[in-house]
Each structure stands twice: as structure tokens, then as C-alpha cells.
Amino acid sequence: MTRISRSSAKSLALHATLFVVLGFWMLPLVYMVSVGLRSPSQAFDPVLFAWPVTFANFITVIRDNPLTGIFLNSLIITVATVITVVSVSALFAFACSVLRLRGSLVIYATLLTTLMVPLASLVLPLAILLKTFGWVNTYWGLIFPYSALGVPFAIVILKAFMDDSPKELFDAARVDGCSSWQTFWHVALPLVRPALVFVAIWQFIVTWNEFFLALIVLTRAEMKTLTIVPMQYSGLYMANPGALFAILTLIALPLIFLYVLVQRAFVRGLLAGAVKG
Amino acid sequence: MATLQIDNIIKRFGTVTVIPELSLTVKDREFCVLVGPSGCGKSTLLRIIAGLEAINAGRLLVDGRDVSALAPPERGIAMVFQSYALYPHMDVNRNMGFGLEISRTPRNEIVSRVARAAESLHLGKFLRRRPRELSGGQRQRVAIGRAITRKPTLFLLDEPLSNLDAALRVNMRVEIARLKEELNSTMIYVTHDQVEAMTLADRIVVMNEGRIEQVGAPLELYEQPGNRFVAGFLGSPAMNFLSGTVAQVADGAARVDLTAGTSVMIPLAGRVETGQFVELGIRPEHIKLNEDDDGVPVSGRAAIVEMLGSDTFVHVRLGDETIVVRDSHGRRIGKGLDVDLRLPVEACYLFDQTGLRVSRLNGLAEAA
Ligand SMILES: Nc1ncnc2c1ncn2[C@@H]1O[C@H](COP(=O)(O)OP(=O)(O)OP(=O)(O)O)[C@@H](O)[C@H]1O
Ligand SMILES: [Mg+2]
User: Fold this and answer.
1) Does B230 touch chain A (CB under 8 A)?
2) Mean pLDDT of chain A
3) B61: closest CA among B11, B113, B6?
């Protein structure tokens, strides 16, 4: 065999394997869409696709819920959280890793410990806190806790990236006359851009999908986020599975779009720490 | 256009004292080269001058003005880093103009200064490229270009050529020599390379363990090293040292018995005592190999022979000691053969047990 045909056979085998794995991986997702397209009588048929296809469920969930408003709630909370997390953690990582501000390492170590606290144990104290502040049923009531929970992980990533960047670049910036702010903006941020993209996307996904805290903090219908909507269709007896899966499909769509848009940058962020140069 | 005066500075990192106490004056438009073994504090000193490291005591004066408390740009310095430290996300153009941009220099002024620097460094074709799309030598030139666009009064270079291959290094050395003429700013240059130090410097500062061992013009240091450290540090291959004791002190001369077996009569101006331990230093190029000549005869065995084409370095075993002889006659010298050496007395240096050079009569150092 020539080298070219061998390498193309290898790539064929590789892709075939990946497709099989992908097929298994996609099963639940395909099933989700499929059930969303069924009438209630067919809902539990043990087949992957059931005919005829109906869009009734989608019509129901879109008609029953002010989806635009709910979608906007999700979007506002998620975007605000992402912006807060990225800016706070980038600044902190810079202070810690480049400026080496006194005490920043102690704060860093302290923040790391919060990574080990499960959300469930925080919910009750948080609920009391938010109630005291009057933040129940407000955007802030979710943005602040989400940001606080997201910052430590983001700091770990960004600090590792900044620690890895050549220190002489920051010295060069000082010789060029940069203030700390200018060094941060013109040198540090561009250097860790792949990590910033990764952190932003990661935070977006986590926040968009968060359910538990949103359920507790948002009780008024017009404040709800997307993740809470499916609740009403699940209920004790699985009253309307078609509608449940239709709404789940709708929630997943924006994330899938986002991922398709930025997946290159996301993968680069994942790999950047591993392969240097 | 600046005089730098370093006044009794002390630098500690935690409990480690890197620079115990150091004073140095670099004259206006002087090209001053710092040399010394690895870890002796050359980079630290340069970073202190740049304002990147705080000092624990002492003062830095530029043209008589105390700059110890000033930020790097206010000192009028520019620095070329060993790793070049080019901003990877900016193109060559912006890399060179970034300092001016930060200091809010008008746009057209930036453009014209970058263009001039690019032209003088032959970078015109590369202005739109990112650093990673450049070769090592081109990056090096961008790093220098970035420094000269700021028209510094004090120009600091930390081993700027050490990451280049040998051929490129020779080219860049010539470039830097040209730059030195063009810029007429005061330059402080750190290097490991003997040739760079000898050819570029107006004055060489030899450092060791954070102290200055000696300061002087290149040939002055080469011919009149003040102590054993400087004598051994400058020159490649290094000066040979043979241990011995003073056997007899006569009027204006001393007889030294070498451990290697012979004795040498050296005319001295400085004082030595009978029985004192001394070391005799002689440079490889001054030793005569298999030649009938004046000088103290010693014989030994050629242990290693390095033929470079132009020169041959012969490592000769004399008892427990080895000395290196440089022969430029292109002769073939067989390894393992016995050789006769002559040590010309006027080329011998004498160092006392503390390492200081004992001044002599009619020596090379005194003739210079
Ligand atoms: N930030 C630091 N913290 C602690 N010690 C340091 C620091 N920077 C340098 N040192 C120490 O100071 C000493 C001098 O370092 P410096 O980098 O100035 O040496 P150098 O003469 O430039 O060496 P080289 O020729 O290898 O570049 C070294 O012993 C080094 O370990
Ligand atoms: Mg150094």
C-alpha cells in the first residue's frame, strides 16, 4: 500500500469509529427531539422515531408560556454573569500572577476551597441571604450567586495561563511606560485570550443550564428562566411528555447554536494549556 | 546623552543579598559592557537601572538627578531583553511603536519614527508581520527597533545576541557597533561573549558575586588584570595558572619554585615574602611550543589536542597541572607526545595568595 492510501484508510477507520461513538452519544438528544414530535398516545412507544410527526407539542409550549420574556430573562442573567465572572477573574488573576499584590495568594487559596462546597449546601443560607437583601425575584438574586460560584474556577484557569506567560513581556510593558491597567488591557488580556474564550463559554453553558437556584430564587412567573419551564410538564404522573421534551428541545437550541459558532475557539482554549508553542 | 551614576546600591531578594554594595559611573555616550559568570547579578543590576527592581539602599543618578524612585519611562531608558519580549499579538509596526503610543505621541510622529527605525534595521518588509512569523535575527532587530524608537538616553541590552546562532551573531555584532555610532546614547550591555565584550566595549565591567572586580578599557583589562579572577575570566582559552612558592627574594626580583618543577626568576616591583604561596599566570598565546627561544623551559605531555584550523590548542600535562598552549603555526602536534614549552618571563603574571596581582618590572602589564 502506498503511504497516502494507508493514511486515508486509517482516517476512514478513525472517522467510522467516531461516528459510531457519536451515534450512541446523540441517542438521548435524538430521542428528546423525537418525543417532542409525538402525540401523547405514542409518547412512550419504544421506538426511536414514531409516525406521524406532529408539531402540536411545540405549539402548546410556545402558546402556554411567554417564551420570549423567559428567554430574555435567561439571556440577561447569563450574559451578565459571564461578563462579571470574566472581568472579575481576569483582574484577580492579573493581580495575583503578575502584580503579585500582597495577600492575593491567600485570597486565591481561600477561593479555591469554595470549589469543594456543593451547591445544595449553599442553597438554604443563600435563600435567607437573598430574602434579607430583598433580591428574591430579581436578576441580581441570580447574577450575584452565579458569579460568586463561577469566579473561583475561572480564576484557576486564568491564573494558570498568566503564570505560564513569559514574565519579560510584562517587564517590557513597564519599560514601554504602561500603567498596571494598560499592561492588563494591552498585554495580559490578549495573551490569555484563548483562556478567556474558554472561561466565557464554559460559564455561559453552566449558567444557562442552572436549575436549582433559579427554582428557589425566581417564584414569579414573569421572572422565570428557561430551565424552570419544563417543571410544569413533568409533574408527578408525567402528564404531558411530548410538551416536556418539546420545551427541552427549545432550551437546548441556543446552546447548540452558540457552540457551533465558537467551537473552534473553545477547543483551542481546552488544548492551549496542553500543547505549547 | 546621559551620565549614569550608581551610588552604593544594595539589592536583596528576601534574605539573599545579590548585590552587596556596588558603585559605578557610566560616562555620557559610553558603551559599557557588563561581564561576569552566570548568576553574578548582571541582569539584576540592569533591571535595577531600568527601574524594574527596587533597591534596598543607595541611589541611582542620571545626569545628576536622583531617579531611584522614578518609573522606567521617566528615567529615559529603553531595554532590550534576552528573550526579546516582543508582544506576540501585535505586528512589528505596533511592537515598535507601542511605547510611543502609550506615551501619547502624535500619530504621525510615531509613524515616522517607526519607519526610520525599520529602515535602519532593514525591517521595512516585515512591518505587518507578527513576531512568530519572523526569524530569530529579525525578532532581535525588532527588539532593538522597539528600543530605539523611544530615543532613549540610556540604552540597556541584556545578552541581546545570546539566542542567535554563531553566524547571525557576528552580523548583529557589527550592526550593534554601527548602532553605537549612530545613536550616540549611553549604552550598557550585558554579555557572556568575550568577543562581544572586547570588540564593542569602551569600558568593561567585570562582575563576580554581585561585586565589581575591575573596570577598564578592554585591552587594559586584558593586559593588566588587577586580580586572578579578572585574569582568568577574560581571554579564551583562559589564562593558565601554575602554583608555586617564593623561594628567594632578591633586590627587585623573586625566584618562584613552581610545583610543576622549574623555577622562574621574576623582576618584581611589588612585595612578596620568602615561602609565600603564589600563582604564576600566563596566557596560552604567549607560551612557545617546541621553539628554541628565551624563557623558562618546561616539558610535559600533550594530553588533548584541539585543532581549529587557524589555531591549535594543546593541553599539556605538567605534573598535576594542565596548561593550555595556543599555537598558530598550523603545525600537527600528535596527542600523547612529549612537548617542550618555553614560558617567556615578560609574559608571566604573579598573583599572591589573596588573588591580587603583584606588580612587576618589565612585564607586559607594565609596558602597556
Ligand atoms: N526574583 C528573584 N528572586 C530571588 N533571587 C533572584 C531573583 N532574580 C535573581 N535572583 C538571584 O540573583 C542572582 C543574580 O541573578 P542574575 O539574573 O542577575 O544573574 P546574571 O548575572 O544575569 O546571570 P546570567 O548570566 O545567567 O543571566 C542569582 O543568584 C539569582 O538566583
Ligand atoms: Mg542574566
Assistant:
1) no
2) 86
3) B6
Q: What pLDDT digit, counting tens, does each position of B82-108 carry?
A: 888 999 999 999 999 999 999 999 999
* B319-B320-B321-B324 Cα dihedral, nearest 10 degrees: 70
- Asked if A182's CB is within 8 angstroms of B87's CB, the reply is no
Asked if B368 and B326 count as a contact pair (C-beta separation under 8 A), the reply is no
Q: Which residues line ion ligand 2, judged by CB < 5 Å? A: B 43
Residue A42's Cβ-count burial label (10 Å; 0-12, 13-18, 19+) is middle
**Averaged pLDDT, B182-190:** 89
Confirm if A146 and B21 have CB atoms less than 8 A apart: no
The CATH H-level superfamily of A66-271 is: MetI-like (1.10.3720.10)
Share of chain A above pLDDT 70, in %: 93
Does this model's pTM top 0.80? My answer is yes
Q: Report which residue type is found at B172.
A: M
Q: What is the pLDDT of residues B327-346, one digit of tens each?
A: 888 778 888 888 888 899 88
Inter-axis angle of helices B107-120 and B92-102, nearest 10:
130
- All structural domains of chain B with their residue ranges: 4-232, 233-367
Protein residue with least CA distance to atom 1, ligand 1: B13
Whether the pLDDT of residue B353 is over 50: the answer is yes
Task: Tell whether B73 is within 8 A of chain A (Cβ).
Answer: yes
Which residues share a beta bridge with B360?
Answer: B268
- Classify the C-alpha dihedral A91-A96-A99-A101 as positive or negative: positive
Tally the residues of chain B.
368
Cis amide linkage into residue B237, ω under 30° from 0 = yes
Q: Which CATH architecture has domain B233-367?
A: Beta Barrel (2.40)
Give ligand 1 pocket residues (Cβ under 6 A).
B 13, 16, 18, 36, 38-44
Inform me whether the C-beta atom of residue A45 falls under 8 Å from chain B C-beta atoms.
no
CATH T-level assignment (fold) for domain B4-232: Rossmann fold (3.40.50)
Among B42, B12, B7, which Cα is nearest to B26's?
Answer: B7
For residue A273, the one-letter residue type is G
Instruction: Encode pLDDT of B18-57 as tens digits.
Output: 999 999 999 999 999 999 999 999 999 999 999 999 999 9
pLDDT at B367: 63
Q: Helix, strand or coil for residue A197?
A: helix
Residue extents of the structural domains in chain A: 3-54, 66-271
Is 0.90 exceeded by the ipTM?
no
pLDDT at position A84 = 97
For residues A183 and B77, give the distance between their C-alpha atoms in angstroms, rounded to a whole number: 18
Chain A contact set for B146 (CB, 8 A): 176
Measured by CA distance, the residue closest to atom 16 of ligand 1 is: B41
Grid cell, residue A97, equals 500572577
Q: Round to whole Å and give the CA distance between B137 and B130.
A: 14
Region for residue B275 given its phi and psi (left: phi exceeds 0; alpha: psi -120 to 50; beta: otherwise):
left
Instruction: Cite the DSSP H helix spans in chain B.
Output: 42-50, 92-102, 107-120, 136-148, 166-183, 194-200, 218-223, 228-233, 364-367
Contact A163, A155 (CB under 8 A): no
What pLDDT is stored for residue B1 in this prediction? 66
Can B4-232 and B233-367 be said to share one CATH topology?
no
**Which pLDDT score is estimated for A21?**
95
Please give the angle made by the CA atoms of A27, A28 and A31, to the nearest 5 degrees. Answer: 85
What is the number of other CB atoms lying within 10 angstroms of the CB of residue B365? Answer: 18
